[in-house]
Amino acid sequence: MKNLLNHHDLNELIDRLQTLTPENRRKWGKMSIQEVLPHMTDPLWVAIGQKTARIHKSIFYNSFLGKMIALYLPWPKGATTAPEFLPGTGGTAYTTFDQDRQALIDALQHFARHGMEQDYHPNPVFGKLSRKAWARLMWRHTDHHLRQFGA
Fold first, then answer.
1. Whole-angstrom distance, CA of residue 50 vs CA of residue 48
2. Chain segment 112-134, per-residue pLDDT in tens
């Protein structure tokens, strides 16, 4: 299973990110390319403790069902997300396309380095995850949004 702790998988996502331009249009959902870059970055910083997010306890938190959704089951297109990950409601604000794309690349690399040495913080939706589970979840999240914008 692809994950961000695998150097090849990480570089593959970064290469796909490099193909994005401000002209990419979404295939589904509501976020623009300018909103999705910070949206993809914020959960990486939450995982390593550089950003906080409120715990959203639900049937998914610390449950088998939550782990299945996070790691294996298909994600619905246009699903809701935590306000901390949406620009304008707690998420990081857009700056410029190039700066935000580079910030995402930097966050992906920092996330991977962090996970090689220490555990991540609990996920605000799914609870405590192993390093590999967090890395799988963040690979899936990034891949989901890259596909959303045709990359």
1. 6
2. 999 999 999 999 999 999 999 99
